[in-house]
Design brief:
Elements lengths: L4 H13 L1 H16 L3 H14 L2 H9 L3 H7 L8 H15 L13
Length: 108
């Protein structure tokens, strides 16, 4: 499903005014990626990037062309682990946050 411009603008407007929303968006993207839901994780991460620093600024930070980054996080994109973690590191730095992983046991 293609997102409408209105949806992207709504996400951006909310992210601009709500720090907790920005943090939750990044956290949700990483939770999805870590749980193996790569398609949705990439989509949420793409929304986060668009709503915060943008692909051009991210490209300058990570040394990857913005068009390559956009392809990486597209529905058919397949980012390499080193590029993905480099992006995540820069997004955390730009947001002034540090995301951590908590290990828990699954119920049988």
């Amino acid at each position: 499903m293609t997102l409408t411009r209105d949806f992207r603008e709504t996400i951006k407007a909310r992210a601009d005014r709500d720090e907790a929303f920005r943090s939750a968006l990044l956290s949700e993207a990483l939770d999805l990626l870590l749980s193996g839901n790569l398609d949705d994780g990439k989509a949420v991460l793409r929304d986060y990037i668009n709503a915060t620093i943008g692909f051009e600024t991210l490209a300058e930070s990570v040394g990857i062309p913005s068009k390559s980054l956009m392809r990486m996080f597209s529905a058919k994109g397949n980012p390499r682990a080193d590029n993905l973690f480099n992006v995540i590191m820069h997004l955390q730095h730009a947001a002034g946050i540090r995301v951590s992983v908590e290990v828990t046991e699954e119920a049988a």
